[in-house]
Amino acid sequence: MTNVREAAYIIAAILFIVGVMRLRTPATARSGNIMAAIGMVIAVIFTVIGTSLGNLILLIVVFLVAAAIGTYSSRAVKMTAMPQMVAAFNGMGGGAAAMIALSEALQALGHGTYPGLSQAVPGLFDMLVGSISFSGSIIAFLKLQEWMPTRAIAFKGQNAVNAVILVVLVLLAIAIPIVGVGDRLALDWILIAGSVLLGVSFVVPVGGADMPVIIALLNAFTGIAAAAAGFVLQNDVLIVGGALVGSSGTILTLIMSRAMNRSIFNVLFSAFGSKVTATGTSERGEIHPTTSEEVAMLCAYAQRVVIVPGYGLAVARAQQECKDLMDVLVARGVDVRFAIHPVAGRMPGHMNVLLAEANVPYDRLYDMEDINPDFPRTDVVLVIGANDVVNPDARENPGSPIYGMPILNVDQAKTVIVNKRSMAAGFAGIDNPLFFKQNTKMYFGDAKSALQNLLAAIKEEVA
Amino acid sequence: MRRPSGRLPESQAKEVLTAVHASLLQEIFSFLLAVFTGWSLITKVPPVLHTPLMSATNAIHGVLIVGALIVVFTAAGPSQIVVAALALFLATLNVVGGFVVTDRMLEMFRKSPTEKGQAAK
């Protein structure tokens, strides 16, 4: 039976790899996800078959309850809440890794033995990293759900405190295999509790705008923790699946911090956006509010229009209105394109997913590098619920906390129309001089109703 | 020696658990190959698919459910059972929720090529 199980695990591992492979192109992505899920089912079935099943009823009950909660919550959640859902499920995985390692330690101690080093070390690693991933993901979830302040919360010397906690935890993890049976369990618990604390104090100082990078990083953490659990249990499918996710999550994290022109260390340790003080902007002045009629005229008689979607579009669920606007303008012969900043929204590709939902064709979506040279030739830029990714301070004001981050140079267009609910600061909590420029018009209102009014105005005024 | 299912007699357990296990090198080999595979796969993914990719890999590390099942099978006594059941609960949430959320995201991608085809006509 062991050989059959090993063969099934190989098949599962192949399905994981091919699944990720198919996720590289939109046309095959969905089947890729389903293949990975099939691999998972195979791995689970062949883990159960041929095993002496202890605690069977408990197992079935726990599984069914968790599966029902997981299915319901992921079906019921709105598209805008997807990022925090991923964060939450990732945290569950981290917690599972820590509990698997603790369970294995408990069982070994129950037999009156210590696990050998090759199992004790990954086990302790699981308790440390799994717990950090657990509590860190919960904080990321709470921030994105806005159940706690999204702004970076930090105190002086926070990084030093975190470093000290980490060093103490690592020393503790090294000490645990050395001490006697009686104390081991208590020390395991202290290690887990300390790691949970570290996860909290590690993510709390990270601002909301950087949350996607943190989720990607914690995803990689959980992957590595899963691989470590594989070493603890001497289970190949855990090792391979976990390692795949660990390396892919690491790459994704690097890609995302590179998109913001900041090193991963800067993202993690600079408490970016914790200061809301004036950033040396001298350009504050009058804003120029506008009406749907004026925006309708500007858009309808433009040659080139670029729409810049941001998180505000997602919150208002206005993607369909956005598509309708595109259709109306395209029918009038206007060249309409969408400019997608790599970190617009709260996850990489967030905007692409939303616009795909409204059937906006891929070939109208442009990445930052491709569209930036075109802004000087653009008549109207319509910024819908985006803020930090179009902030010219990133280019011009060395005193700004986001200085150096590549942005969409919308201010170079002839007219910029910014749709926002109010003059509140963006997710990073910093001023945006774009709003005060001569060629910027502020079109206040919720993105959905603002776009509906705009569509009505276009039909009325121009049709 | 692979970890057998069920519990071992105490003497045998000692033997298995005290030394560095024999399959360690082979496991490290699998681990490294998987790391390199993941690395070379992901560098080629377009930004459009970063969210679904993160979500799908999040579901794949839900393979922790396999580990959770193993510790539930072998748990004995209240504290072991509680911890193992918690592991299973968390891992199941991760894997089921992860795949369903990813499928929901990708459902939206599927429609677009036909839409594009119609637009071209």
Written description of the protein model:
The complex is a heterodimer of chains A (463) and B (121). Chain A has 463 residues and is an alpha/beta fold. Chain A has helices spanning 2-22, 26-48, 56-76, 82-110, 117-144, 158-175, 181-203, 211-233, 236-259, 264-269, 292-300, 311-316, 319-331, 350-357, 368-371, 393-396, 447-462; strands at 304-309, 335-340, 365-367, 380-384, 415-420, 440-444. Helices cover 60% and strands 7% of the residues of chain A. Chain A has a 6-stranded parallel β-sheet. Chain A is elongated and about 80 Å long. Mean pLDDT of chain A is 86; it is low at 275-283. Chain B has 2 domains: 1-44; 48-121. In chain B, 77% of the residues lie in helices and 0% in strands. In chain B, helix 3 (50-60) runs antiparallel to helix 5 (78-120) and helix 4 packs antiparallel against helix 5. The longest helix of chain B has 43 residues, at 78-120. Chain B starts with 9 loop residues before the first helix and ends with a helix. At the A-B interface, helix 1, helix 2, helix 3, helix 4 and helix 5 of A face helix 1, helix 2, helix 3, helix 4 and helix 5 of B.
